[in-house]
């Protein structure tokens, strides 16, 4: 037989089979059902073409050959050829038994057992699926025959879709978060995502809604696909909507035991209303309560597998129950309609045919089904089944396009029981748990070969695997052979698991060497902290994508591109380039790997912290700053493990602004201080991580309270010392006062003698602070003191006993001392030492003191103590500087005594001079002169010295004074008002001039008397008012005592010339000349305020004020003071040898102290008194001579005098301003203004400074006496004619000096707005705020000023603000600013010098030494180094010690030798 003939014979059965199938597919109505899969397919196309693909053609041909071989066609043909014709004829007569059996067999093969693939899946097909993965908005499901599909959240049920749409509409309409109610309703009626409704491994019934071409990306849940499973699932989209799945269901099939899938339509009081897709009918299911558990209600739109309990008589309501076990075991026995056969239904099937590709079965009496090889029961093959055997199987899907309808079933145990596939081992683990993806299997055995598809291998008993033909080798394999080749039957291979198909219960394996050697296949295989090399795949604005191994990609965030932020990352990362990274975090749930390309982390050899289990106290590792807050840094390690770094642990130097010092993404090295695993809280330190690891800090928990330790001094501060305890390496603080008391040395001496590196032993741990990582220690008390630890018995205590106690606190009456046995004691400041300047009146808290008992209160268990040497050791006869005051009898008037300020009140100061003995010092007794801000000079517990003025034993009151008896060294301390007698002639000074007379203070006393205006001149007709104007405060006068009233404490004086003889007047002249000489030596700007006196003639003044009109105007000179630059002396003012050049540096004031004429000019008496007339003529003649001869040596006293002086010096601003002051004292304000305007016209245009002085004087005048309008007009003129910036700043200073803070602030704002480029304007504005105590406002000015100033002025301005912080604000903040300056400009030696001067003002020697050490490490010239060493040496001599001087000299020699 030719090959052509054999080919035709071979294809004949295939054609006849296709023809028989076509005939059998004819429906009962006689019409052919259209094919859903390929409606355009033609059995015999024209031209001999075919619609099958080459692969399908090969598969069909191979299957036809197998069927022919099974039917022994060629063998029967040979037998007929060998037989006789008789036999042939005989054979044609009728069929034999064998031929009839073959026919039956042939009849049974009309149904082909085919596997499901993507091409055979059609829209509308119903399938049983098993959930592989659940994402918030999508389900990935496993389909039969190793296929995958996906179900969007909108394809669950129509009710769930409605709930989601309603929630979205509510969010878009109202975005306000007032929605606790809305959140509750959302939680009750609808889920937030699919993770709340489904779980992996769950079986669901689905219907195909769309089939998409390969490689589609529609419906992605994110911008990139998570893995190959999701990529593959994109081709098939399914729906779980019961309306589609139960379509075709009829009411007659709703019998008890029938299983359906329904959706919750609404939640009612007693159950659920269910929608199962049958038109005109609805379902109801009651709540199911389990024991006493609370009912967990299902949400609207969720799906539920239910079983029909009964159908109502009207057919409109069906009662359902939900029993999972009953649902899984319920068997469908009969249906009235083929459309009622749903996927997932358990049926009883009858095997009708056994074929090589599986089984053909009959179900429900008249429907045919197939079972392929992948869904045979485990360990069984088709040869284990016989025709007629009944099996229990579960429907997988209905084959679309077949008639009569055909179904695919499964005999797999896990499918029949609707459970997950498990091993047969005792542990009963699931396949996925036992064989995770990436596992390498050393031996797998080939058990079946599908030439065009792949291999079925045996992994273990009951567990099979499938190797696709493309995964058998890295090279192309066209087909597989079961009898030969490397993959023949029973061959053993090494494989790797690359996937798992839950529904089929089969592992997906690969034999490819590239897969076997691959480091990891999925995200879970990547280890955090591992260093890997990858290939740059894509760079976007948000991140960098790196391919690290095959199909596994990772991301790098922008802040992990490098150790610093990259402005142009595209220059560094180019497509296809290789990059070395370290795995930062792995998130298996999101299938995401994060990498870091920071060089510090990639090359770090420190431990990797990827979980709390990796963290231990003391661990040093690298991290990255991920967040910067006001007081803490958040440092991130690996796998989102974070630690907190407090501000104090950031740096050795105080850092006030973390944002300026640290940026997000900065790599840092930290040391873990503590770990709290319960709260997942880690405290770390950057400061302690730097330096030698041997000096690192240990775990504080290793030190217990009460433990005896020893340590090494690390740093010495003002009040305490920082230690490092050994061997625990824990930081500790100890009070220097405690050490001083223990060693018996003063604290200052201890501070200078104690050095870094000294060892302290016998220390006791008092407290420990776990948060700060520090403990407090103290010296262990001596054995003698320890013996006092026993309870103190008051019966054994007597006056003079010595006791040892601990200072508990400081109270109003001194130190409170605690003794064992609930006994307390008080140590008054005056009982601490015999010399208040040498001892410590207030012992340090927690220090131990040894005291002598001087009184015992047995009721209160309280002791009165004293630490005076005169009490404890009277035999040594110590020198007593400050005697002990125990009672008022120990004091008397006039005694000088020292004490401690107890409090500062509004009316004075209270001083404690002994136990329970306090003295009052009134305001007038505080200073010899007037002091406006007197409170600033006193503070609590300040040592003061004074004199007793009076003692009132009845009221227990003591009056005390701090004032000296007199300014003269020959002061008469004992003189009083009773010592004065009528007619006594005294010398004095004018204290005050009033319209009714003159108040005179008697020299060398503290007595003041009144000279009435009627007692000034002998001539009754004289103008007394003009005479009063000739007297000035401070004038030296000679007076006579006219009357003394001891009861009312009044003194009446007289100044008439007739009261004095010639000798008296001569002595008065000498005294006055001496006073003039003294006055010339002093500054002309004197304070007008005179000290208060004990004896005030206030009553006289009051009486006189009732009779006399007060027409004079007293001018307060303090309001005219103004901070200003010094004014150079005018050339024309040099003629005034006794008048100094006007200087405004110390403050501007109007009033001038002009010494009056030696004697006043009096009016003439009666002409008959010749002697008096001669005296008057002689005095006039003398005065005239003074006016002409001494015009340039005395100060002007009248308008004429000023006019004469101005003729000689018209450009002297000093004379003009004094002239204005003279007019103001006469209350002639308008004249003072006119004089100022005259001065501006008279002064030469070249004398700019002189004109400026007059303008300032006019501004002061208007500020005091004018209105806001007149002041503003004058200011505009001044700014127009002078340097405007200078005038703006002067105007602000005038407001400041006159206590007009709001106007000064407004003026500074105007100045900074107009002259924003001026550094001086900003710094003066900041100084104004600081003087007012407005710290925050002052500090806000610095960043504002830097925005307005030129860049060259930035450093100067920052330095000025830092200096202001030192002087008026917070020195620590100033120090921080200077640290930033010298760090960024290390070569600015001038700024280093300023920084050192500021620190020197703080008296912090150690800080200054650190600064000099730092600056001298810089490279500089020998001249500059010499300057710094000289400065250092000078500071050590001033505020340091001898050891410091020696160190400076040694360092200077060392520096010289090093640079030589």
Could you name the key traits of this structure?
1460 residues, disordered N terminus, alpha+beta
> How would you sum up the global shape?
elongated
Percent helix range: 25-40%
Largest pleated sheet: 5 strands, antiparallel
Strand percentage: 15-25%
Give the mean pLDDT: 77
Taking strands numbered 1, 2, ... along the chain, how are they ordered across the largest sheet? 3-2-1-4-5
If you compute it from the alpha carbons, what radius of gyration comes out, rounded to the nearest whole angstrom? 55 Å
Cα separation of the termini: 115 Å
Count, helices: 38
Low-confidence stretches: 1-48, 72-109, 176-188, 219-226, 784-788, 966-974, 1071-1192
Q: Compute the number of strand runs.
A: 51
Secondary-structure-derived class: alpha+beta
Can you walk me through this structure?
Helix 1 (3-24) packs across helix 2 (54-70), helix 24 (1199-1208) runs antiparallel to helix 25 and helix 27 (1248-1265) packs parallel to helix 29 (1284-1297). By secondary structure, this protein is α+β, with helices and mostly antiparallel strands. The longest helix is centred in the N-terminal third of the chain and has 22 residues, at 3-24. The model is unreliable at 1-48, 72-109, 176-188, 219-226, 784-788, 966-974 and 1071-1192 (pLDDT under 50).
């Amino acid at each position: 037989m030719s090959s052509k003939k054999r080919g035709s014979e071979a294809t004949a059965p295939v054609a006849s089979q296709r023809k028989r199938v076509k005939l059998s597919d004819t429906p009962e109505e006689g019409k052919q059902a259209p094919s859903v899969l390929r409606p355009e397919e033609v059995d015999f196309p024209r031209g001999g073409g075919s619609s099958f693909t080459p692969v399908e053609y090969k598969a069909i041909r191979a299957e036809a050959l197998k069927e022919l071989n099974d039917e022994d066609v060629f063998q029967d043909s040979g037998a007929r050829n060998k037989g006789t014709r008789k036999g042939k004829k005989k054979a044609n007569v009728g069929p034999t038994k064998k031929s009839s059996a073959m026919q039956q067999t042939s009849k049974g093969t009309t149904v082909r057992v085919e596997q499901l693939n993507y091409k055979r899946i059609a829209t509308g097909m119903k399938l049983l699926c098993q959930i592989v993965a659940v994402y918030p908005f999508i389900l990935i499901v496993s389909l039969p025959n190793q296929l995958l599909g996906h179900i969007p959240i909108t394809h669950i049920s129509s009710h769930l879709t409605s709930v989601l749409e309603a929630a979205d509409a509510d969010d878009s309409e109202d975005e306000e978060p007032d929605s606790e109610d809305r959140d509750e309703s959302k939680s009750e009626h609808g889920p937030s995502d699919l993770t709340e409704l489904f779980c992996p491994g769950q079986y669901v019934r689905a219907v195909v809604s769309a089939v998409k071409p390969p490689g589609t990306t529609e419906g992605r849940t994110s911008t990139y696909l998570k893995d190959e499973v999701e990529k593959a699932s994109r081709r098939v989209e399914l729906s779980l909507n019961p309306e589609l799945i139960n379509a075709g269901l009829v009411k007659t099939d709703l019998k008890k035991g029938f299983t359906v899938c329904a959706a919750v339509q609404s939640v009612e009081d007693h159950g659920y209303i269910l929608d199962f897709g049958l038109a005109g009918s609805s379902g109801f299911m009651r709540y199911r309560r389990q024991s006493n558990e609370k009912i967990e209600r299902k949400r609207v739109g969720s799906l539920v597998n239910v079983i029909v309990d009964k159908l109502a008589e009207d057919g409109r309501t069906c009662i359902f129950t939900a029993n999972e076990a009953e649902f899984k075991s319920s068997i469908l026995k009969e249906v009235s309609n083929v459309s009622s056969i749903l996927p997932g239904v358990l049926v009883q099937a009858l095997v009708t045919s056994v074929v090589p590709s599986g089984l053909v079965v009959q179900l429900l009496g008249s429907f045919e089904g197939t079972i392929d090889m992948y869904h045979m029961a485990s360990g069984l093959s088709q040869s284990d089944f016989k025709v007629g055997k009944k099996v229990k199987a579960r429907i997988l899907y209905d084959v679309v396009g077949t008639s009569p309808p055909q179904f695919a079933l499964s005999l797999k145990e896990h499918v029949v029981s609707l459970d997950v596939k498990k091993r047969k081992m005792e542990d009963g683990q699931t396949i996925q748990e036992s064989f995770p993806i990436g596992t390498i299997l050393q031996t797998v055995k080939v058990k079946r070969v599908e030439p065009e598809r792949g291999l079925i291998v045996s992994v273990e008993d009951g567990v099979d695997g499938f190797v696709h033909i493309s995964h058998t080798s890295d090279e192309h394999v066209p087909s597989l052979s079961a009898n030969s080749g490397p993959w023949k039957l029973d061959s053993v291979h090494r494989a790797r698991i690359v996937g798992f198909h839950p529904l089929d219960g089969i592992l997906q394996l690969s034999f490819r060497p590239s897969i076997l050697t691959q480091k990891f296949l999925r995200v879970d295989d990547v280890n955090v902290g591992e260093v890997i090399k990858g290939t740059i795949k894509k760079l976007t604005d948000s991140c960098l994508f790196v391919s690290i191994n095959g199909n596994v990609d990772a991301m790098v965030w922008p802040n992990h591109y490098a150790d610093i932020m990259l402005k142009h990352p595209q220059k560094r990362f180019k497509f296809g380039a290789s990059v070395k990274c370290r795995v930062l975090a792995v998130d298996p749930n999101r299938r995401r790997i994060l990498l870091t390309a920071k060089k510090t982390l990639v090359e770090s050899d420190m431990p990797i912290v990827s979980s709390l289990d990796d963290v231990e106290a003391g661990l040093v590792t690298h991290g990255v700053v991920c967040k910067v807050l006001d007081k803490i840094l958040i440092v991130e390690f690996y796998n989102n493990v974070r630690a907190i770094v407090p501000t104090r642990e950031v740096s050795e130097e105080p850092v006030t602004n973390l944002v300026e010092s640290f940026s997000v993404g900065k790599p840092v090295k930290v040391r873990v201080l503590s770990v709290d695993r319960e709260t997942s809280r880690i405290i770390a330190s950057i400061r302690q991580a730097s330096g030698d690891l041997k000096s690192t800090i240990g775990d504080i928990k290793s030190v217990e309270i009460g433990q005896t330790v020893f340590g090494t001094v690390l740093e010495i501060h003002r009040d305490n010392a920082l230690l490092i305890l050994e061997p625990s390496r824990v930081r500790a603080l100890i009070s220097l006062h405690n050490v001083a008391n223990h060693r018996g040395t003063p604290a200052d001496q201890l501070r200078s003698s104690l050095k870094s590196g000294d060892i302290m032993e016998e220390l006791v741990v008092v407290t420990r602070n776990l948060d700060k990582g520090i403990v407090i220690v103290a010296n262990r008390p001596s054995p003698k003191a320890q013996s006092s630890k026993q309870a103190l018995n008051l019966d054994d205590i007597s006056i003079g006993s010595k006791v040892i106690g601990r200072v508990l606190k400081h109270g109003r009456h001194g130190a409170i001392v605690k003794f064992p046995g609930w006994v307390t004691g008080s140590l008054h400041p005056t009982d601490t030492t015999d010399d208040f300047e040498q001892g410590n009146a207030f012992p340090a808290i927690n220090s131990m003191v040894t005291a002598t008992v001087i009184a015992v209160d047995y009721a209160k268990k309280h002791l009165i103590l004293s630490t005076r040497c005169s009490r404890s050791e009277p035999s040594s006869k110590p020198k007593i500087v400050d005697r002990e005051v125990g009672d008022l009898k120990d004091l008397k008037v006039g005694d000088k005594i020292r004490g401690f300020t107890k409090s500062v009140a509004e009316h004075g100061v209270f001083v404690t001079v002994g136990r329970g003995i306090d003295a009052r010092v009134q305001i007038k007794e505080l200073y010899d002169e007037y002091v406006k801000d007197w409170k600033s000079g006193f503070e609590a517990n300040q040592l003061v010295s004074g004199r007793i003025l009076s003692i009132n034993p009845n009221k227990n009151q003591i009056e005390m004074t701090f004032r000296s008896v007199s300014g003269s060294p020959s002061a008469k301390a004992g003189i009083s008002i009773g010592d004065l007698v009528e007619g006594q002639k005294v010398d004095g000074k004018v204290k005050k001039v009033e319209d009714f007379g003159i108040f005179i203070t008697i020299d060398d006393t503290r007595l003041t008397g009144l000279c009435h205006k009627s007692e000034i001149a002998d001539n009754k007709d004289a103008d007394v008012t003009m005479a009063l104007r000739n007297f000035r405060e401070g004038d030296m006068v000679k007076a006579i005592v006219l009357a003394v009233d001891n009861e009312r404490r009044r003194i009446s004086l007289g100044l008439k010339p007739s009261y004095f003889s010639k000798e008296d007047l001569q002595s008065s002249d000498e005294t006055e000349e001496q006073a003039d000489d003294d006055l010339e030596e002093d500054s002309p700007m004197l304070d007008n305020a005179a000290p208060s006196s004990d004896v005030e003639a206030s009553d006289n003044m009051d009486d006189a004020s009732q009779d006399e009109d007060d027409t004079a105007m007293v001018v307060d000179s303090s309001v005219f003071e103004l901070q200003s630059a010094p004014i150079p002396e005018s050339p024309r003012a040099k003629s005034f040898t006794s008048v100094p050049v006007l200087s405004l540096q110390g403050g501007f004031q109007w009033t001038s102290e002009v010494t009056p004429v030696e004697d006043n000019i009096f009016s003439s008496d009666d002409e008959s008194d010749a002697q008096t007339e001669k005296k008057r003529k002689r005095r006039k003649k003398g005065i005239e001579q003074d006016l002409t001869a001494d015009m340039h040596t005395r100060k002007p006293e009248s308008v004429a005098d000023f006019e004469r002086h101005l003729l000689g010096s018209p450009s002297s601003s000093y004379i003009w301003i004094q002239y204005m002051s003279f007019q103001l004292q006469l209350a002639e304000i308008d004249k003072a203004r006119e004089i100022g305007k005259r001065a501006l016209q008279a002064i030469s245009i070249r004398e700019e400074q002189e004109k400026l002085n007059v303008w300032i004087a006019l501004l002061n005048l208007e500020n005091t006496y004018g209105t806001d309008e007149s002041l503003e007009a004058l200011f505009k003129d001044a700014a127009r004619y002078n340097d405007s910036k200078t005038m703006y700043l002067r105007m602000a200073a005038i407001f400041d000096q006159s206590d007009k803070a709001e106007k000064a602030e407004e003026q500074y704002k105007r100045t900074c707005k107009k002259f924003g480029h001026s550094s001086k304007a900003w710094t003066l504005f900041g100084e104004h705020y600081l003087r007012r105590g407005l710290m925050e406002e002052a500090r806000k000015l610095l960043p504002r000023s830097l925005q307005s100033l030129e860049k060259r002025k930035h450093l100067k301005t920052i330095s000025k603000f830092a200096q202001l912080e030192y002087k008026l604000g917070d020195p620590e903040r100033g120090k921080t600013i200077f640290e930033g300056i010298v760090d960024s400009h290390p070569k600015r030696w001038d700024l280093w010098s300023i920084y050192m001067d500021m620190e020197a003002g703080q008296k912090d020697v150690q800080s200054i030494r650190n600064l000099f050490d730092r600056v001298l490490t810089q490279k500089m010239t020998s001249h500059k180094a010499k300057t710094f060493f000289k400065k250092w040496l000078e500071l050590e001599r001033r505020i340091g010690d001898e050891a410091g001087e020696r160190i400076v000299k040694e360092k200077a020699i060392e520096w010289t030798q090093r640079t030589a």
